[in-house]
Design brief:
Length: 576
């Protein structure tokens, strides 16, 4: 076929129904619903989105709300000394940082000399003083700023308008910071509803809302759920316009959206994976339209180093220089998937906001037992998903590296962090390691998948394993166990081989020895083996935290086997 003929060749447009029919056929009898993923927000994610899936009317408020496509690189300083804070801040400005970020939850002991230097910097760079206590001496910095320079100071001071000195008209002091709710387990819908409810609590009428609009800011933590986090930030812009209209405002002024990379999925284990998480979160925050972004170092939970702080800053610089997203307003706009997701978040968040209002508003709701119970429920859902490996924390609940650096305890406490329960088990078993044996029957190609699975499963709790060679008979297994004297045994073989060896094996081993089997079996077989001394099973979907707790209780309690018991194991003749 000639090139001209190829260019003139056309194809009939395919419909969604035709695509769905082919997709269903490829599932080989499984329902199409198997391709649909339900999020913790109660939103169904489909494998394909088309123009019919999304209405693009939400584009207008999102694009109008962003005055510039660029964002402010606002890196934090991780020191407790005022002089170090100033020195590190000045160095960071030379290397790409663009703002002064101070976290009042980790206060610095300020002196007059440092405050004077900070005041000079505050005139040149935007300031973001977050979670400020009224007793924090950083507030004294404003005493060192001349009257003629007060209007030059821009940014956020999270302390409340009545606590802020007069004259700083470009400082916002009233905000909705939902980072704590996020880390405790809140979903995107809840975060958005809380932000809007907090704004409504601060404005009783149109005039009050107009005044609030000039003082308000929002702050989100952005997690690794890439598309959901993009949609979350975009949805806020739409919700803010809806709230403004509800108060009778025709002119909708944008409020700054402050973001930070979430620490909910950070881990002290294999911390370099946190760098990947930070990059993922940072990119989604930028695509979602963040005005200000803080990227936390990958080792922020232990103690950041100069290298990790530089890498965190460079994450933003690489995105800024290499992707050109800083040249585009709403770069995610027009994606059928993201537009549809944004629309669903807006609808669900507004509905939740109305429910909060009906319960007395933001202040009453966050103090209610209902709110705490709901957040706790969401956290338990997230933790259960991680424990059962429905969702992955690389290096924590999957692909754990027991040969890496020694385990480190977190010096920064983040309530609700999902990796923390695994870290506690890793530390416990590192200090008191049981002797665990994987007893494998058959050929390597037959038992290796299950042996690798069990080894990986136990490694996420910090438990190291030793495997037998290819065993053909129960006699070989009993002799190996008698020689090695393990504390805990997991039998790994095909279903057929396991059914052959389990009963005679259980009859020949000490009753005090903890024995598990890899895989799931019929209720009848399971009951029979457990009656003969089997402890339990290890399989995909098993709650890892519950299993580790069971092993730890046995190991620290009376689960250790008296080594004399192994001498009672009898060599037997068996046909396998």
């Amino acid at each position: 076929m000639l090139v001209d003929e190829i260019k003139q060749t056309t194809f009939a447009a395919s419909t969604y129904e035709e695509w769905q029919a082919l997709a269903t056929k490829s599932l080989r009898g499984l329902p199409f619903d198997k391709l649909i993923t339900k999020t913790i927000e109660g939103i169904d994610l489909y494998p394909l989105y088309t123009e019919q899936s999304s209405k693009l009317e939400s584009l207008h408020p999102i694009r109008e709300a962003k005055q510039e496509a660029d964002w402010t690189i606002a890196q934090q300083q991780y020191v407790d000394n005022a002089n170090d804070f100033i020195r590190n801040m000045k160095e960071s400005f030379e290397r790409g940082n663009e703002a002064i970020v101070y976290d009042g939850s980790n206060p610095v002991d300020w002196n007059d000399k440092a405050l004077i230097e900070l005041a000079q910097l505050a005139i040149q760079y935007p300031i973001y003083f977050l979670k400020i206590d009224q007793k924090d001496t950083i507030i004294n910095v404003f005493q060192h700023i001349a009257d003629q320079d007060k209007e030059r100071v821009k940014g956020v001071v999270d302390i409340g308008q009545d606590q802020m000195p007069n004259g700083f008209i470009n400082i916002r002091t009233i905000g909705a910071d939902v980072t704590e709710a996020h880390h405790l387990g809140a979903d995107a819908v809840t975060e958005l509803a809380l932000v809007i409810a907090k704004a409504a609590d601060n404005a009783s009428n149109q005039e009050a809302f107009e005044a609030l609009n000039k003082q308000f800011f929002v702050r989100f933590a952005v997690d690794t759920h890439f598309f959901m986090e993009i949609a979350k930030l975009r949805a806020f812009r739409v919700l803010w316009e809806a709230l403004s209209v509800a108060y009778g405002n025709k002119q909708v002024d944008a409020v700054p959206v402050l973001t930070e990379t979430s620490l909910r999925s950070y881990a002290t284990l294999d911390p370099y994976v946190n760098l990947l998480r930070a990059g993922n979160s940072a990119f989604s925050a930028i695509l979602g339209g963040a005005d200000v972004l803080t990227v936390h170092p990958h080792d922020v939970l232990t103690r950041p180093t100069e290298t990790s702080i530089r890498l965190a800053r460079n994450v933003q610089l690489v995105i800024q220089e290499e992707t050109l997203v800083s040249e585009v307003l709403d770069p995610a706009g027009g994606s059928y998937f993201i537009e549809s997701l944004t629309k669903e978040l807006v609808e669900k968040a507004w509905k939740r906001f109305i429910e909060i209002e009906e319960q007395g508003g933001y202040a009453a709701y966050i103090k209610s037992e209902q709110y705490m119970a709901y957040i706790d429920q969401l956290h338990k859902k997230r933790l259960a998903s991680v424990a059962k490996t429905s969702s992955s924390l690389i290096g924590t609940n999957v692909y754990a590296d027991l040969l890496g650096d020694e385990e480190k305890e977190a010096s920064l406490s983040i309530k609700g962090r999902l990796a923390e329960p695994f870290e506690k088990f890793r530390i416990s078993f590192e200090q008191n390691q049981p002797k665990v044996a994987l007893v494998t029957f058959g050929q390597l190609k037959d038992f290796k998948p299950r042996a690798d699975f069990v080894s990986g499963f136990l490694a996420t709790g910090g438990i190291k394993t030793e495997s037998t060679a290819e065993l053909a008979t129960v006699e070989e297994a009993v002799n190996w166990i008698r020689a090695r004297q393990p504390d805990y045994v997991v039998v790994c073989a095909t279903n057929e081989m396991t059914e052959q060896v389990m009963t005679p094996l259980l009859q020949k081993l000490p009753t005090e020895l903890t024995i598990d089997v890899a895989g799931k079996y019929s209720e009848e077989l399971s009951s029979h083996w457990q009656e003969n001394g089997l402890n339990g099973f290890i399989y995909n979907g098993l709650d890892k935290l519950e299993k580790f707790n069971e092993i730890l209780d046995r190991w620290e309690g009376d689960g250790k086997v008296d080594k004399a018991e192994f001498s009672k194991c009898k060599s037997i003749k068996s046909n396998g």
